[in-house]
């Protein structure tokens, strides 16, 4: 939407778009049908010589695009028409609902205030006002270490034979995320998991896809992967969070283009006759730093919902969740406990 910033008005019923210093054209103020045809073509024109900023934050992208779109709607339809209709349209885009708001403290964190309250704490699901983990420098990334002798090696630089067939690929002895999820052939209950991941530098997709992936324990309980070095997403959605439930104790995310490590001790939930006896629990190190200590998992994870245990199972596959970003993985192994 940043292309809309190049539009200017001349008179009450005309708009002017500068294609170059010597070429200009004028359009009459259109009706709805004309606008529907015209707007998708705007991105074909160069209307600004301003170079793109390196790694703009979520807040910067969101705020700039929003105000650009408001200006455009006001230009064509008048000031009274703009905001309500614009927000109604944005609500249909991923991560762009009218409910997405800034934190009250001015930190620039985005989240939702119309989501349900989490029953075990004072915060809502994806609450931007929830305290954000403080940043801690984890030090430089280390080269991958070999898996223990009793580990089930899921990837060590070879092929994807330990995983179900899908559209992910191996490149330079690293897994590159593609469409859909990557699901292990083996299933696990209580286990120790090690994996390493890298968010691509220079990713030019939307902010909500930057480094976006996830580790689904038993295919049900997600530990978030995200570019939390730059992006200020809601705390229970940042890297190493139990998604939609519990933020990490600290933010030790390295910049995109640098390898990160997750070491997870997972205890599966216990059921008897379909009734939950004990929730799943997780202890976790991100880049060698403790971020969860015997933390309960309150149910299957999801977006904008209160988690709940719906499947009375105690084993399941390890799943890597593709969300539109070519995140890379290496050195993945699991030790059943």
Walk me through this protein's architecture.
The protein is built from 3 helices and 21 strands. It has 337 residues and is mainly beta. The protein has 2 domains: 97 residues, no CATH class; 202 residues, Jelly Rolls, CATH 2.60.120. The strands form 6 sheets. Strands 7, 8, 9, 11, 15, 18, 19 and 21 form an 8-stranded antiparallel β-sheet that branches. Strands 10-20-12-13 form a 4-stranded antiparallel β-sheet, with no helix packed on it. It has a 3-stranded antiparallel β-sheet with strand order 1-2-3, with no helix packed on it.
Number of domains: 2
The CATH superfamily of the largest domain turns out to be Exo-inulinase, domain 1
In the CATH hierarchy, the third-tier topology of the largest domain is known as Jelly Rolls
Number of helices: 3
Structural class: mainly beta
Sheet-strand content, in percent, reads 25-35%
Could you list some keywords that capture this structure?
337 residues; mainly beta; 2 domains; 11% helix; globular
Summarize the model shown.
With 337 residues, this protein is mostly beta strands.
Write the layout of secondary structure elements.
Layout: E1 8-9, E2 14-18, E3 24-28, H1 32-38, H2 58-77, H3 82-90, E4 100-102, E5 110-112, E6 134-135, E7 152-155, E8 169-171, E9 174-176, E10 181-188, E11 191-198, E12 213-217, E13 221-225, E14 250-251, E15 260-267, E16 270-272, E17 275-278, E18 280-286, E19 289-297, E20 316-321, E21 328-336
Parallel strand pairs: 6-14
Antiparallel strand pairs: 1-2, 2-3, 4-5, 7-21, 8-9, 9-21, 10-20, 11-15, 11-21, 12-13, 12-20, 15-18, 16-17, 18-19
């Amino acid at each position: 939407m940043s292309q809309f910033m190049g539009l200017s008005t001349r008179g009450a019923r005309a708009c002017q778009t500068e294609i170059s210093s010597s070429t200009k054209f004028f359009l009459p103020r259109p009706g709805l049908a004309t606008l529907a045809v015209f707007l998708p073509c705007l991105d074909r024109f160069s209307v600004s010589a301003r170079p793109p900023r390196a790694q703009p934050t979520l807040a910067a992208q969101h705020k700039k695009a929003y105000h650009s779109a408001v200006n455009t709607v006001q230009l064509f339809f008048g000031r009274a028409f703009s905001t309500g209709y614009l927000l109604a349209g944005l609500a249909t885009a991923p991560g762009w609902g009218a409910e997405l708001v800034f934190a009250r403290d001015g930190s620039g964190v985005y989240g939702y205030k119309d989501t349900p309250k989490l029953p075990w704490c004072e915060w809502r699901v994806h609450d931007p006002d929830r305290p954000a983990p403080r940043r801690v420098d984890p030090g430089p990334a280390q080269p991958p270490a070999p898996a223990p002798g009793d580990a089930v090696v899921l990837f060590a630089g070879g092929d994807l034979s330990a995983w179900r067939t899908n559209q992910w690929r191996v490149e330079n002895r690293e897994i590159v995320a593609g469409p859909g999820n990557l699901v292990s052939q083996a299933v696990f209950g209580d286990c120790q998991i090690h994996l390493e991941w890298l968010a691509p530098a220079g990713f030019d997709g939307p902010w909500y896809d930057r480094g976006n992936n996830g580790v689904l324990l038993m295919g049900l309980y997600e530990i978030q992967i995200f570019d939390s070095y730059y992006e200020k997403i809601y705390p229970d959605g940042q890297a190493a969070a139990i998604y939609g439930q519990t933020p990490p104790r600290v933010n030790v995310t390295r910049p995109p283009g640098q390898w990160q490590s997750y070491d997870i001790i997972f205890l599966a939930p216990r059921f008897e006759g379909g009734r939950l006896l004990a929730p799943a629990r997780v202890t976790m190190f991100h880049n060698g730093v403790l971020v969860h200590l015997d933390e309960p998992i309150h149910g299957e994870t999801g977006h904008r919902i209160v988690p709940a245990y719906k499947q009375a199972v105690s084993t399941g596959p390890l799943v890597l969740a593709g969300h539109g970003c070519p995140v890379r993985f290496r050195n993945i192994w699991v030790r059943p406990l």
